[in-house]
């Protein structure tokens, strides 16, 4: 799982280093264990960091008119080759140096031959930039611009808008975009099959983004409304785990008529507990980033909505915290179907043995996390909101056969 971004100035007098840096920070919700960027002036300058993009230290004299950057959960990107620099979100088969060579010398035929589930951005040594999504479209890629001066490629639109850019459109599955100092052109390289990642829409993307041509906030409000249709609960207040699940809670409140309230206040930088590599962070990640508000929950029957449940450890701690502050009842609703299988395409869903919903009944899970009840969005409800052109393999064990 990764966030990738490319920034390209049509005039070489520009220095895009800060645009690239802050755009990458806008994508660290997609992974933050490793990050790096490659900036081109006469030559490439590579900066890597074992940590989040916000911890990258830019050299004071760094300059360049084009660059690409990566933030993710495993090291290795960006890579510099004899032919250019490459960043990848997803799983790509083959030697990356050979792929970079092919993208430089014969990009369209090379893209026809690459296997995997990925989006990529390639910045060639001659200054041309290329973006591409594989034909299944499981990984996103968007394009925008900064006036007529910059072109911006990004995993999601937050990487574009946080630096003042304007979102233009989605790169279609199987489509390549070619950028040079004279023009931006598009080519449909491979057949478009459309299997958007459901977890990207439900959990991974920022609520202020457009991904897969969908407004993430609107999607999640509709999921909350769907939860209210499927599971009616007699309660006093609805709260959502920030930031991802707040729109779910708003949607549930609108549909059910139960008041929504702010249940938590942030205590530090966002921590995506599903993406955490440290077991300590996985266990107490919610407490590190959020603190419940006693006034909202004391003496009340609380509906707590979260985007997903992986191991159950963070929700167990959250439910315990709400009860410690005097919540009379805690009913947990999950804005996605049960996660029961590891993702083979790079989304950070753990092994099946570690997924609580794959190993325990609903009654057992409610008891483990200390909730009065628990309910997951139905698969039919997810399809109703998102349509059926989505990958739900981690929820069904049925994956598109793409590798």
TrEMBL record:
Amino acids binding Mg(2+): 244, 306-307
Swiss-Prot/TrEMBL catalytic activity: 5-phospho-beta-D-ribosylamine + L-glutamate + diphosphate = 5-phospho-alpha-D-ribose 1-diphosphate + L-glutamine + H2O
Keyword entries, A-Z: Glutamine amidotransferase, Glycosyltransferase, Iron, Iron-sulfur, Magnesium, Metal-binding, Purine biosynthesis, Transferase
Superkingdom to which the source organism belongs: Archaea
GO annotation, biological process: 'de novo' IMP biosynthetic process; purine nucleobase biosynthetic process
Gene3D superfamilies hit by this protein: 3.40.50.2020, Glutamine Phosphoribosylpyrophosphate, subunit 1, domain 1 (3.60.20.10)
GO MF term set: amidophosphoribosyltransferase activity; iron-sulfur cluster binding; metal ion binding
UniProt remark on cofactor binding: Binds 1 [4Fe-4S] cluster per subunit.
Domain Rhodanese: 298-349
All copies of domain Glutamine amidotransferase type-2, residue ranges: 2-182
Cofactor dependence: [4Fe-4S] cluster; Mg(2+)
Binding site for [4Fe-4S] cluster: 197, 343, 391, 394
Pathway named in the protein's UniProt entry: Purine metabolism; IMP biosynthesis via de novo pathway; N(1)-(5-phospho-D-ribosyl)glycinamide from 5-phospho-alpha-D-ribose 1-diphosphate: step 1/2
InterPro entries assigned to the protein according to its UniProt record, in alphabetical order: GATase_2_dom, Ntn_hydrolases_N, PRTase-like, PRTase_dom, PurF, Rhodanese-like_dom
EC number in record: 2.4.2.14
Main EC class the enzyme belongs to: transferase
Family of this protein: In the C-terminal section; belongs to the purine/pyrimidine phosphoribosyltransferase family.
Entry protein name: Amidophosphoribosyltransferase
Source organism: Sulfurisphaera tokodaii
């Amino acid at each position: 799982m990764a966030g990738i971004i490319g920034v390209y100035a049509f005039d070489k007098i520009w220095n895009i280093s800060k645009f690239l840096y802050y755009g990458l920070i806008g994508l660290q919700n997609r992974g933050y264990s490793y990050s790096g960027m490659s900036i081109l002036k006469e030559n490439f300058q590579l900066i890597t960091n074992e940590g989040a993009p916000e911890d990258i230290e830019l050299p004071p004299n760094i300059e360049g008119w084009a660059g690409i950057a990566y933030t993710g959960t495993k090291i290795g990107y960006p890579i510099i080759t004899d032919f250019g620099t490459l960043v990848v979100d997803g799983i790509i088969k083959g030697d990356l140096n050979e792929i970079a060579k092919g993208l430089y010398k014969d990009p369209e035929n090379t893209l026809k031959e690459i296997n995997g589930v990925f989006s990529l951005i390639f910045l060639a040594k001659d200054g041309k930039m290329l973006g591409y999504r594989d034909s299944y479209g499981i990984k996103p890629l968007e394009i925008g611009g900064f006036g007529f001066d910059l072109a911006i490629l990004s995993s999601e639109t937050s990487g574009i808008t946080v630096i003042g850019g304007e979102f233009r459109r989605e790169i279609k599955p199987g489509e390549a975009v070619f950028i040079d100092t004279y023009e931006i052109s598009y080519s449909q390289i491979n057949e478009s099959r459309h299997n958007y990642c459901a977890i990207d829409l439900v959990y991974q993307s920022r609520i202020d983004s457009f991904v897969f041509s969908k407004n993430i906030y609107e999607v999640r409000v509709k999921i909350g409304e769907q939860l209210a249709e499927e599971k009616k609960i007699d309660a006093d207040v609805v709260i959502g785990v920030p930031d991802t699940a707040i729109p779910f809670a708003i949607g549930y409140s609108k549909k059910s008529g139960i008041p929504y309230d702010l249940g938590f206040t942030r205590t530090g930088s966002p921590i995506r507990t599903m993406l955490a590599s440290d077991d300590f962070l996985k266990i107490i990640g919610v407490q590190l980033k959020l603190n419940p508000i006693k006034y909202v929950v004391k003496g009340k029957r609380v509906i707590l909505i979260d985007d997903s449940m992986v191991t159950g450890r963070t929700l167990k701690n959250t439910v315990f915290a709400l009860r410690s502050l005097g919540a009379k009842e805690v009913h947990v609703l999950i804005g996605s179907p049960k996660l029961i299988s590891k993702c083979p395409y790079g989304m950070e869903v753990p092994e099946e043995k570690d997924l609580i919903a794959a190993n325990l009944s609903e009654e057992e899970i409610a008891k483990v996390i200390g909730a009065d009840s628990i309910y997951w969005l139905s698969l039919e409800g997810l399809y109703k909101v998102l349509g059926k052109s989505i990958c739900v393999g981690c929820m069904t064990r049925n994956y598109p056969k793409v590798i």
